[in-house]
# Entry
Amino acid sequence: MTVQRYNRYEKARILGARALQVSYGAPVLIDTEETEPILIAAEEYDAGVLPFTVKRGGE
# Structure
């Protein structure tokens, strides 16, 4: 399995979507001391635990 690389726009969309989920009460997928949803989403992204996929036009 290959690791998918995201461009900055895809990363921003993923982080924004995940932060919105967290702000609405979705369970946090990692242990963290952060309380801001965007910072929690960023830590989850860096840990590689987010279950998002990106569908690109040519794929």
